Amino acid sequence: MRTKKIYFTICLFLLLNSMGALADQFTASHYSAVIQGSCIYAKSWDNAEGCTPMGIYQMSEKDGFAVVPFMISEEVVYSNGGGAFIGDDFYCVWKQEDKTLGFSLSQVIRWNLKTGERNNLGICDDNLAATPAGTAVDPQTGQVYGIFWDSKDKSSRELGIVDYPNKTRTTIATIDKALYGLCIDKAGQMYAIDGDGNLVKVDKANGDISVVGPTGIKPKYMQAAVVDTYTNKMYWNAITSKETWLCEVDLSTGATTKLTQLTDENEFSVLRVLPPAAADKAPAQVTNLKAEFADANTTGTISFTMPTETFDSTPLTNELTYQVSNADGKLLEATASPGEQVSQQITAAQGEQTFTVVAINDEGNSPAEAIQQYVGYDTPKAPAEVKLSIDETGEATLSWQASTEGIHGGYVDTQHLTYSIFRQPEEEKIVSGVTATQWTETLERGYASAYKYGVTADNHGLESEAAISNSAVYGDGLVIPWSCTFDDASSLDLFTVIDANNDGHTWRWTKYHDGAAYYIYSKTNDADDWLLSPPLALEANKSYIVKFDNEVLKAKYPEKMELRYGQGLNTETYEVVMPVTTFTNDEYTTNTFTIRPQQEGDYHLAFHIVSDANEGSMSIDNLVIDYDPAAGVQDITSTISNNHHPMFDLGGRQVNSKILRTGIYIRDGKKVVVAK
């Protein structure tokens, strides 16, 4: 059995119940086998983040035996010690062991497949854990046979009968060879696959083994098998050192037919085949099922063709009853002749509907045929291409593409669709009932802030999820000193990212290193990407210290970057602070530079990455700009004389910003050092 670190999560899938009677012989041409099993490994789980979706999976003959989830639990249902389907419950042994420490612990789990309720029945003896042969339910008696380890030491194999509810088992005989895929046919004969790949018979009374014939497949790891008691076909989850298959095995010869390759390497420890969906002489299923509802109407038409044969292909001659139902109950019942095309009007509530149709005669119901249809107004999909721009006057313009489809494929009244606008991240609704796909507002000017909006679509009271715009910055330059540690994704909202080569590989935020600005390489394009800081209020002829930390992915993947600064968003006019430099440091290194603008104004620091294609990544963190303490502050009246930004001394008293002595002051919550 293959093992890996296991994580668990909840993901409860639709529970389907297939019912019917067991027949003595296989006769129904309309029969399609449905196999369910407890899956304990799949290759795709190796890379699963935070979850391992173990549980019950299903394979249907009519769907080519594709493996699909049936029920997955948030709690441990890891049947690496075998198990059995008994009524509505699945019982299994979960075995935990550490060979290095000599630790071993086995527990019995019961999982109800109707309610999803899972119970840990407690610790059991290690001899309840099955070998890779697994277990099998005898259809004659209902007893659960298995080949078990004698103890946690696994010194010998024993054929026995297990009682999972009471956590006990008996021993019938010692088995002296490795077996796989234990199963029992409808007559009570036990079969398995031996280590050489032979189909063998196992005597339930004494454990004697006799070879039937070669399968051509040499098994490895835990693997399950089951005999369909309706057709007497044996299905085997055959696993070798290289491949995984679902196979059919001829019980008389051992000859094996590969039905489908399980490319995800699904490893099942227990399998069962669901009973047939109808009695032999009950009608076959209806065909050509359709449901049609025009626009938002909740009254529509359901149509189908009545069957012409019974489940076992006997021609039908007498009139049949049919029923149409949904989750609310029976919608329609009437009669029709075999082969008749039926078209009837039905009414259903607004929402997602599953309409089920069965044909009925004196022998019972046909297999159910179902169709899903959304009825009435649908919740619209979120608007697309939500874009925000803010001009120099503070006019914010928001535009988007109209919603045209429902999330369930239902009806959206595009002629009367309205939109609501929300300010982000507060999710404060600004306006609703907007009929156009563009909206504007004028922003109040203050210090530079990041603006972002959400737009929802409303289809007669059904509101879409919000589509979030890009972030745009508007306002006056931020006060120095200023810093950014990129602690969360919102840190970049105040920055402007320019993907100059439009290749989709550009600056973004990363959670690694406790947050950083991050560029990831393109395999085909050289980098040409800018990261501009928010506007920073700088004074003329003042010196400022700029510091930042950076690192590359690996030294063998060098990155090239320059640093500039300037006003506006035209980076071609920016002054070079650090010329293009090649970095190979794979740990954070601090870089320090001095800038001295000649004019007062709002400036951007601009990181321009120009690395060659197919290199690695660049991370930037701990960006700081502050006054150069060596240069002092000679003249601050140009930036602190505005009465809208009062200053206070360290005692909390407001001071006249036009006549300041040397010292430390507070303005807008920031420290200001005055030196004369």
Describe the structure.
- By secondary structure, the protein is mainly beta.
- The chain folds into five domains: 35-273, Neuraminidase (6 Propeller); 287-375, Sandwich (Immunoglobulin-like), CATH 2.60.40.10; 384-472, Immunoglobulin-like; 482-627, Jelly Rolls, CATH 2.60.120; 637-674, no CATH class.
- The chain has one helix and 54 strands.
- The chain starts with 33 loop residues before the first strand and ends with a strand.
Summarize the structure.
The protein has 676 residues and is mainly beta.
Jot down its keywords.
676 residues, mainly beta, Neuraminidase, Immunoglobulin-like, 5 domains, six-stranded antiparallel sheet, 1 helix, 54 strands, 48% strand, extended, disordered N terminus
Summarize the amount of helix as a percent range. Answer: under 10%
Any idea what the shape is?
Answer: extended
CATH homologous superfamily annotation of the largest domain = Kelch-type beta propeller
Q: Runs with pLDDT <50, length 5+?
A: 1-26, 633-643
The CATH architecture of the largest domain comes to: 6 Propeller
User: CATH topology of the largest domain, anyone?
Assistant: Neuraminidase
State the helix count: 1
Query: What is the total number of structural domains?
Result: 5
Number of strands: 54
Question: Topology, please?
Answer:
Elements: E1 34-41, E2 55-60, E3 67-72, E4 83-86, E5 89-98, E6 103-112, E7 118-124, E8 130-137, E9 144-149, E10 157-163, E11 168-169, E12 173-175, E13 179-184, E14 190-194, E15 198-202, E16 209-214, E17 225-228, E18 233-239, E19 244-249, E20 256-261, E21 267-273, E22 287-292, E23 299-305, E24 320-326, E25 329-336, E26 341-347, E27 351-361, E28 364-365, E29 369-375, E30 384-390, E31 395-401, E32 418-424, E33 428-434, E34 438-442, E35 449-459, E36 462-463, E37 467-468, E38 472-474, E39 482-484, E40 496-499, E41 507-510, E42 516-520, E43 529-532, E44 536-538, E45 544-552, E46 559-566, E47 575-583, E48 589-595, E49 601-609, E50 617-627, H1 637-640, E51 647-648, E52 654-655, E53 663-667, E54 670-674
Antiparallel strand pairs: 1-2, 1-21, 2-3, 4-5, 5-6, 6-7, 8-9, 9-10, 10-11, 10-12, 13-14, 14-15, 15-16, 17-18, 18-19, 19-20, 22-23, 23-26, 24-25, 24-27, 27-28, 27-29, 30-31, 31-34, 32-33, 32-35, 35-36, 35-37, 35-38, 39-50, 40-43, 41-42, 42-50, 43-49, 44-49, 45-48, 45-50, 46-47, 46-49, 51-52, ...
